[in-house]
């Protein structure tokens, strides 16, 4: 029996485990598409994506087209893929690309579709206090996250779940789910199921303005945002001209004027209740537990107001 020819589309670290699973599971990985190298950090040096770094270490062919145009399409067609697998690639795939693989494009999506279609399904699920989310594997069509469902798997969200924990679990669980589903898909044993489009919700892309803490919101709302946007882009505030990321926090029953430091090492009042800051990161510095942080920083003073100046 011939090995199926697979082309994989992915970019971040969490999209790597399913690719490794397919590679070790005997599929013929004939090409890997990932985002082009991006400038990072102060030196503005260009860095390859984690997917590209791993693929090159395995001597697998990597493609980083800036635009998925007709020229790059010819290159893709020359790979003669039986199927393409996409997980957090970061670009919209045009219809003429979707029609190229013999068995189409299969997408791993980090939610229970049709809930949380779009760019930030993990973060929006936590932010909106969902009690569960999951993984949906779909056959892609020309609309965003609206393809027919091959399989779904639920994942619980609790009051401590943060964005990193959830995406790590989705990444891990998607490996066996994809591998087992793909095997059945090639054997014609999967019954495709239409999504209930009337139940859809949209997970809009996270913008920089919504990650700035608004102390006029309740502590419970801000705490969910902190967990949702951890570790990146992270919630932040400005104090005395310096920016600080809040990486971990818990709700306190203490109350006072919003934005006021009402307890040390660092408890800040919100509209309702307050937040005990547990882990913080000053701009350009490494993350620190709050007790370590205050040893070298005495700028936070009791009764001061954090008004994002």
* Overall tally of structural domains: 2
Low-confidence region ranges: none
The CATH topology of the largest domain is given as: Rossmann fold
Helix-strand makeup class: alpha/beta
CATH architecture of the largest domain: 3-Layer(aba) Sandwich
CATH level-4 homologous superfamily of the largest domain: Formyl transferase, N-terminal domain
Helix content: 10-25%
Strand order of the largest sheet: 5-2-1-6-7-9-10
Mean pLDDT: 95
Q: What's the CATH class of the largest domain, please?
A: Alpha Beta
Order of helices and strands: EHEEEHEHEHEEHEEHEHEEEEEEH
Instruction: State the total count of DSSP E strands.
Output: 17
Radius of gyration: 22 Å
General description of the model:
There is one protein chain. The protein is α/β, with parallel strands linked by helices and 309 residues long. It folds into 2 domains: 5-203, Rossmann fold (3-Layer(aba) Sandwich), CATH 3.40.50; 208-295, Formyl transferase, C-terminal domain (Methionyl-tRNA Fmet Formyltransferase, Chain A, domain 2). The protein has helices spanning 16-24, 50-57, 70-78, 95-98, 121-127, 163-186, 219-228, 290-295, and strands at 5-10, 28-33, 38-40, 45-47, 62-63, 83-87, 105-109, 117-118, 132-139, 148-156, 202-203, 235-239, 242-252, 261-263, 267-269, 274-282, 288-289. The strands form 4 sheets. A 7-stranded mixed sheet has the order 5-2-1-6-7-9-10. α1 (16-24) runs parallel beside α6 (163-186) and α5 runs antiparallel to α7 (219-228). The longest helix has 24 residues, at 163-186. The chain is elongated, with a radius of gyration of 22 Å. The termini are far apart. The mean pLDDT is 95.
């Amino acid at each position: 029996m011939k090995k199926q020819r697979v082309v994989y589309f992915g970019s971040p670290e969490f999209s790597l485990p399913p690719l490794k699973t397919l590679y070790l599971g005997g599929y013929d990985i004939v090409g890997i598409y990932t985002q082009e190298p991006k400038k990072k950090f102060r030196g503005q040096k260009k860095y390859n994506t984690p997917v590209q770094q791993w693929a090159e270490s395995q001597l697998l062919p990597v493609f980083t087209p800036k635009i998925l145009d007709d020229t790059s399409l010819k290159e893709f067609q020359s790979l003669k893929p039986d199927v393409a697998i996409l997980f957090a690639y970061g670009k919209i795939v045009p219809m003429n690309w979707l029609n190229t693989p013999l068995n189409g494009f299969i997408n791993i999506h980090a939610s229970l579709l049709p809930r949380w279609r779009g760019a930030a399904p993990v973060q929006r699920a936590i932010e909106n206090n969902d009690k569960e989310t999951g993984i949906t594997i779909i056959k892609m069509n020309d609309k965003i996250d609206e393809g027919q469902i091959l399989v779904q798997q639920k994942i619980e969200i609790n009051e401590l779940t943060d964005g990193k924990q959830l995406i790590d679990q989705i990444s891990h669980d998607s490996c066996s789910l994809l591998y087992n589903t793909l095997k059945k898909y090639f054997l014609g044993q999967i019954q495709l199921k239409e999504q209930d489009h009337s139940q859809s919700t949209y997970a809009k892309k996270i913008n920089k303005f919504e990650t700035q803490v608004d102390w006029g919101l309740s502590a419970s709302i801000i705490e969910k945002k902190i967990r949702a946007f951890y570790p990146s882009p992270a919630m932040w505030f400005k104090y005395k001209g310096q920016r600080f990321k809040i990486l971990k926090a818990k709700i306190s029953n203490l109350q006072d004027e919003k934005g006021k430091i009402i307890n040390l090492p660092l408890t800040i009042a919100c509209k309702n209740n307050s937040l005990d800051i547990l882990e913080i990161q000053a701009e350009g510095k490494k993350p620190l537990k709050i007790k370590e942080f205050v040893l070298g920083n005495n700028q936070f003073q009791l009764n001061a107001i954090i008004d994002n100046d």
